[in-house]
Design goal:
GO terms for molecular function: metalloendopeptidase activity; zinc ion binding. This is Metalloendopeptidase. Keywords: Hydrolase, Membrane, Metal-binding, Metalloprotease, Protease, Transmembrane, Transmembrane helix, Zinc. One of its GO terms (biological process) is proteolysis. Its cofactor is Zn(2+). This protein is an alpha/beta fold. It has a single domain (about 45-245), classed as Collagenase (Catalytic Domain) (3-Layer(aba) Sandwich), CATH 3.40.390. Helices cover about 20% and strands about 20% of the residues. It is built from five helices and twelve strands. It has helices spanning about 55, 60, 80-95, 140-150, 235-245, and strands at about 1-5, 10-15, 15, 25-30, 30, 70-75, 100-105, 110-115, 120, 130-135, 165-170, 220. The protein has a five-stranded mixed sheet, covered by helices on one side. A three-stranded antiparallel sheet has the order 1-4-5, with no helix packed on it. The protein has a two-stranded antiparallel sheet with strand order 2-3. Helix 3 (about 80-95) packs across helix 4 (about 140-150).
Length: about 250
């Protein structure tokens, strides 16, 4: 088994830590496994510090982007392949949702996209310059769409308060110390709109935080196969509905 680690970073900007998704590709028999998230972060890719829990989880009420308009800017170190993926993801959101990612001109609040040491982003709008990193291992269309989902304000499906109605968590298969990554979010902190979505771009696969990379840690109760993020095609039907409701643009 060959294990390739990508750098893990904690980025601090103006006293606020940001979300980080770090991928660890475990190759077994030439087949790439599911993304492996940072065990030190809330829900695998959310850093929560300085009593910021309420600020983070109240995204629906406090940190959406006005009119769904998200100015962005690319740094010079973005290579051609990644630039193409970024613009494909932007087109994906702009066509399917009421969100509009637009090139930054003079806006104070904007997303700076750069090729950092992993995949990380704030959830929703922070205010001022905020970073979205897409580093090595993140140059796949569904991964870019996933990270953009955090920018818009989406969370993970497997942490929903009603997830036990849809998922079986195999606690004995989870790597020791990683059980915290499967804690459910309270209804009062995070609104669960629409039904649970097995196809969501915000739902990771069946071996997330597996103790050996092979055992399933998450399984759909109805037998649906939970595909790895890299195998997904982009926003699901219910992802689109959630974004529309988050931004009050159902019509």
């Amino acid at each position: 088994m060959k294990i390739q680690n990508f750098e893990t970073r904690k980025i601090k900007t103006k006293g606020i830590f940001i979300i980080s998704t770090i991928y660890l590709n475990i190759l077994t028999g030439g087949v790439s496994s599911l993304p492996y998230l940072n065990p030190n972060l809330l829900e695998g890719d959310i850093i929560e510090v300085r009593n910021s829990s309420r600020q983070i989880r109240n995204i629906k009420r406090e940190a959406t982007w006005p009119m769904g308009r998200i100015p962005y800017q690319l740094t010079y170190n973005i290579d051609y392949k990644l630039s193409v993926l970024i613009h494909e993801a932007i087109f994906h959101y702009n066509v399917l949702t009421c969100i509009r990612f637009v090139p930054r001109t003079y806006e104070r609040d904007f997303v700076m996209i750069y090729e950092g040491g992993g995949c990380y982003s704030y959830i929703g709008k922070k205010g001022g310059l905020q970073i979205l990193s897409l580093g090595k291992g993140c140059d796949y269309f569904p991964i870019v769409v996933h990270e953009f989902g955090h920018v818009v304000g989406l969370y993970h499906e497997h942490n929903r308060s009603d997830r036990d109605d849809y998922l079986t968590i195999h606690w004995n298969n989870i790597k020791k110390g990683m059980e915290i990554q499967f804690i459910k979010v309270n209804d009062s902190d995070f609104d669960t709109v629409d039904k649970f979505d097995y196809n969501s771009i915000m739902l990771y696969g069946e071996r997330i935080f597996s103790k050996n990379g092979k055992l399933k840690t998450v399984e759909a109760k109805d037998g649906t196969e939970l595909e790895s993020l890299k195998k997904k095609y982009g926003l699901s039907h219910y992802d689109v509905l959630k974004i529309k409701r988050l931004y009050n643009c159902d019509n």
